[in-house]
Amino acid sequence: MPMVADQSSSTSNLFSLQSHILSEESRHPGASGDFSWIVSAISLAGKAIAHRVRRARLEGALGEEGTSNVQGESQQRMDVIANEILMRCLGSRASIAVLASEEDEEPTILRRGHDGGKYCVLFDPLDGSSTLDTNGAIGTIFTILRNDPLIESAERTVCQPGRQQVAAGYILYGPSTAFVITTGSGVDLFELDPFVGSFIRVKQGLRIPPRKKVYSVNEAYSSSFPLGYREYLEWAHHSGYSSRYIGSLVADVHRILISGGVFLYPPTLTHPDGKLRLLYEANPMAMIVEQAGGASISGAVATLDVQPTKLHQRVPLVLGSRDEVDEVSRRL
Ligand code: AHG
Ligand code: MN
Ligand code: MN
């Protein structure tokens, strides 16, 4: 029985993110290579952001920028730096029509009309950035959509249901720098080898365990959660669950991707539609979780089926192990 080598063992073939994407591309005859270019630009941005994040305190780049973004949230200096790095890495890719960021009110139109790019790229340049001052794990979240040259408005072009995402992923700046991506046929994990300067593939086809008695929610707001969420927490408190909450979506989702559990960001008094943004936080994470065998809901519907109407719209989010999400959804 041939052994299936663990990708992280020293004897398996070495695949960088670049060679992985090119080998994926070779499976699609007629592929133009445009998509690979975009992923390589995101990989370059991730390495550059990782470098700046790890030097932020040394370079005096922590703390607030003194401005607020369209969300009315005060921007961290590193939010602005990460946003600029992504714009500079992606702006040169001819295959991109529109870029949109959590940090910018309007989408950035690079090329539209019939000579426009084939794709739109949306991102949260630095997620969980308020935990950076305390050396917490933070990340970059991205999603790739097809461009529709017939739609005039850039915002309407990117307001596509999550099921239409071509690819989704995140980069986690933790003790290691991890790159997670799905293009619709499973979820793959890469780790940055700082000596080689490449993201090295360490796991393919990640699967989330169907059950795990760990929930992840900011319980400080629980008195304002709708009744169903409070009933779920009351049940969990008496069913042997433990709680883990980092307050950085990328870090909380990565824990669930690797070891299972359920993440909840319900509607609250201050965020009656939920806090997390549909297009560049909830949808990419929902695609990753579903591709790994988990589930993601926003209220009564699957997150990926929500029809967006605004670039920065927010949704409630419950995602993770399939059976754990069911325990929540049956009470909503
Ligand atoms: P961002 O830093 O991009 O604004 O995202 C922060 C989000 C998300 O990372 C996390 O799950 C959530 O805010 C935590 O919110 P609370 O601090 O309200 O728990
Ligand atoms: Mn975020
Ligand atoms: Mn952010």
Description:
It contains eight helices and 18 strands. The chain is α+β, with helices and mostly antiparallel strands and 332 residues long. It folds into two domains: 7-203, Fructose-1,6-Bisphosphatase, subunit A, domain 1 (Fructose-1,6-Bisphosphatase, Chain A, domain 1, 2-Layer Sandwich); 214-329, D-Maltodextrin-Binding Protein, domain 2. The strands form four sheets. Strands 4-3-5-6-7-8-9-10 form an eight-stranded mixed sheet, with helices on both faces. α1 (17-26) runs antiparallel to α2 (34-55) and α6 (249-259) runs parallel beside α7. One manganese (II) ion is lined by residues 79, 102, 124, 126-127, 129.
What's the arrangement of secondary structure elements?
Blueprint: H1 17-26, H2 34-55, E1 64-68, E2 74-76, H3 77-90, E3 96-101, E4 108-109, E5 119-127, E6 138-146, H4 154-158, E7 167-173, E8 177-182, E9 187-193, E10 198-203, E11 214-216, H5 227-237, E12 242-243, H6 249-259, E13 262-265, E14 276-277, H7 278-291, E15 295-298, E16 301-302, E17 314-315, E18 317-320, H8 322-329
Parallel strand pairs: 3-5, 11-12, 11-13
Antiparallel strand pairs: 1-2, 3-4, 5-6, 6-7, 7-8, 8-9, 9-10, 13-18, 14-17, 15-16, 15-18
The structure holds 2,5-anhydro-1,6-di-O-phosphono-D-glucitol and manganese (II) ion (2 copies).
